[in-house]
Design goal:
This protein has 542 residues and is α/β, with parallel strands linked by helices. Among the domains are: 80-197, Diaminopimelate Epimerase, Chain A, domain 1, CATH 3.10.310.70; 284-472, Alpha-Beta Barrel (TIM Barrel). Helix content is 30%, strand content 20%. It contains 18 helices and 25 strands. The strands form five sheets. A six-stranded mixed β-sheet has the order 8-9-10-11-13-12, with helices on both faces. Strand 20, helix 11 (375-384) and strand 21 form a beta-alpha-beta unit. The longest helix is centred in the middle third of the chain and has 17 residues, at 203-219. The two termini are 26 Å apart. It comes from Streptomyces davaonensis (strain DSM 101723 / JCM 4913 / KCC S-0913 / 768). This is Amidohydrolase family protein. Keywords: Hydrolase. InterPro entries: Amidohydro_3, Metal-dep_hydrolase_composite, Metal_Hydrolase, YtcJ-like.
């Protein structure tokens, strides 16, 4: 097998020990690392067709993997006006006014990234923007992507003029005391009422947006992602890009299982496992156990300070337990969105019950998000072999150290003090995987690792950290996107390390991502990204 890639003058960093390997060069063929050694012996493996790159002392780590990402829906939802930089209502109003000026007559305005903290404790509704959006159909997606604000014209065009009933227990068209919609729509079932009234992009436009997003991710050092949805054309898009050689990330895709899925639906999810191509495959199932704390749809053991977040996403949580058992018996790992303490506890109970009833050993189930949990929950992750999938930048950017943010005010002091317990979960023996949950938060992996270390607001790194005692070290943060991500996927024998026989998925930096100061880490230059032995991003300096 011919050598396709040779990297010279590299500092090869082992994410298990945090030490550099003694070798300074590597060769790859067939998508795998085939040799490690000195420059002279590795260079000798190259021929005229080999890509040879002198890294000039760059630090190489195993390729960074985002443990929770939504490439297709993210590419769609982040199209339009970015409101993530707005910190108050006047800034949102100004941004909307500017966007309205650029709209063609009758066109819809799409915006995303709206932080509910801009309302400063007042109701989250469209009323503050009625004047600027007068006659304009607009959809303003809140940052959590579980809720949106629809303008009065958008509601009118969609025929939404009052409350609705939904199968999703936490979905709601929020209405005032007179039964009139306020513009706030909670969860997918309610949001879709208005979204489907808007003009839809063509399939080619959607494919192009996805390809562009994936290329941008590669340039930030990402070599892979655990994609937590497979809706609509997602799998077809991955297949097309892969076949065309345009898929720059290795993707592990978990399709959704929604409430009401019957035995045939579960069997279809099982039968679909393993489908894929060279750089993507279907592996696992994604399930929602609750919504979000910010919009009152999480599942808490005690209601939040608004009397909300009292219910599971599944009208009958025991039906979720039965689905988990069926998937477990089939050897299918389940990744469950569980934000509130009651939701996390129920997921762990369901996994414990499934394991007690038998089935194959070694199925690696996961809990996604885990935003607040009590002490007695921590140890159960390691005991049950359940992966803790965390998104630390959510804590950094959507909460505040003084607990004056919407998330903390809803929870109250005791539960807000248990925010994103990365340190405690790590110390309890859990496998902690880090990710962005893009488009909820930015995908650059250095920002994710930095947030896990400093826990400060990304917009103002001089701000106080939220729960600094929960910070991870530089090495632990790197592990969260390399060896731990590989373990969560059952790939620890072929990914997450720089070893002969392992995948040639690699990321090269201008400095050491472990030693770099946490607040400076997002600015560390990414010099090279390699997936399956092929450079997918290469800095002009190389």
């Amino acid at each position: 097998m011919r050598t396709s890639l040779v990297l010279l003058s590299a500092r090869l960093l082992d994410p298990v020990t945090g030490q550099y390997l003694p070798q300074t060069a590597l060769a790859a063929a067939g998508g795998r690392i085939t040799a490690l050694g000195a420059a002279t012996e590795i260079r000798a493996l190259a021929d005229a067709s080999t890509t040879v790159i002198d890294l000039k002392g760059a630090v190489v780590t195993p390729g960074l993997v985002d443990g929770h990402i939504h490439p297709v829906s993210g590419a769609e939802l982040t199209h339009g006006l970015d409101l993530s930089g707005c910190v108050d209502v006047p800034q949102v109003r100004e941004a909307l006014a500017g966007a309205v000026l650029d709209l063609d007559p009758g066109a819809w305005l799409h915006a995303w990234g709206l932080d509910p903290n801009v309302f400063a404790g007042r109701p989250v509704e469209t009323a503050p923007f009625d004047a600027v959006l007068d006659g304009v159909p607009a959809l303003l997606l809140l940052f959590d992507a579980h809720s949106l604000l629809a303008s009065r014209r958008a509601l009118e065009l969609a025929g939404v003029d009052g409350p609705r009933a939904f199968e999703q227990a936490t979905a709601e068209v929020v209405c005032d005391a007179d039964g009139r919609p306020t513009g706030l729509l909670l969860e997918d079932a309610a949001c879709e009422l208005v979204e489907r009234a808007a003009p839809q992009p063509t399939r080619q436009e959607r494919r192009d947006r996805l390809a562009a997003a994936l290329r941008a991710m590669s340039a930030t050092g990402l070599t892979g992602g655990h994609a937590m949805d497979a809706n609509g054309d997602s799998l077809a898009f991955y297949g097309e890009l892969d076949a065309a050689g345009e898929l720059p990330l290795r993707l592990r895709v978990a399709p959704w299982c929604q409430p009401g899925t019957d035995a045939d639906g579960v069997r279809a999810l099982v039968d679909g496992q393993g489908a894929g191509g060279r750089l993507w495959r279907t592996a696992g199932v994604k399930i929602f156990m609750d919504g979000t704390i910010d919009n009152g749809t999480a599942w808490l053991e005690q209601p939040d300070c608004h009397g909300e977040s009292r219910h599971a996403f599944w009208p009958d949580p025991e039906e979720y337990t039965r689905v988990v058992a069926a998937l477990h018996w089939a050897g299918v790992p389940v990744a469950t969105h569980a934000i509130g303490d009651a939701a996390v506890r129920h997921v762990l109970d369901a996994v414990e019950k499934a394991r007690a009833e038998g089935g194959p050993a070694g199925v690696r189930h996961r809990v996604e998000h885990i935003e607040t949990v009590p002490d007695d929950t921590l140890r159960r992750f390691a005991e049950l072999g359940v992966v803790a999938s965390m998104q630390p930048t959510h804590c950094c950017d959507f909460t505040r150290a003084d607990h004056t943010d919407n998330w903390s005010l809803r929870l109250g002091e005791e539960r807000a003090s248990r925010a994103w317990r990365c340190r405690d979960l790590y110390d309890s023996g859990a496998v902690v995987v880090l990710g962005s949950d893009w488009p909820i938060a930015p995908y650059p992996p250095l920002g994710v690792m930095a947030g896990a270390r400093h826990r400060r607001p990304s917009r103002d790194l001089t701000g106080a950290p939220h729960g600094p005692e929960q910070a991870l070290s530089g090495l632990e943060a790197l592990q969260g996107m390399t060896v731990n991500a590989a373990w969560a996927a059952g790939e620890e024998h072929e990914a997450g390390r720089i070893r002969v026989g392992y995948r040639a998925d690699l990321t090269a930096f201008a400095g050491d991502p472990i030693a770099y100061a946490a607040v400076d880490l997002p600015e560390l230059p990414v010099l090279l990204t390699v997936v399956d032995g092929r450079p997918t991003y290469r800095d002009a300096s190389l």
